[in-house]
Design brief:
Mean pLDDT: 82
Family: Belongs to the bacterial ribosomal protein bTHX family.
Protein name: 30S ribosomal protein THX
Radius of gyration: 21 Å
Keywords: Ribonucleoprotein, Ribosomal protein
InterPro entries: Ribosomal_bTHX, Ribosomal_bTHX/bTHXc/bTHXm
Length: 45
């Protein structure tokens, strides 16, 4: 079990693939989009 093993984390790193043992890290959206920086609240008419 090591670099040549398809089912281990080290084997996934060596092959450059992803799977259950080594899932992809998802990028989080920037905080500015969540809190709407620069967008002022519109007054109700």
């Amino acid at each position: 079990m090591g670099k040549g093993d398809k089912k281990t984390k080290r084997g996934k790193i060596n092959r450059g693939t992803f799977g259950v043992r080594r899932p992809r890290i998802k990028k989080k959206p920037p905080i500015e989009t969540k809190i709407n920086v620069g967008n002022k609240a519109q007054p109700k008419l």
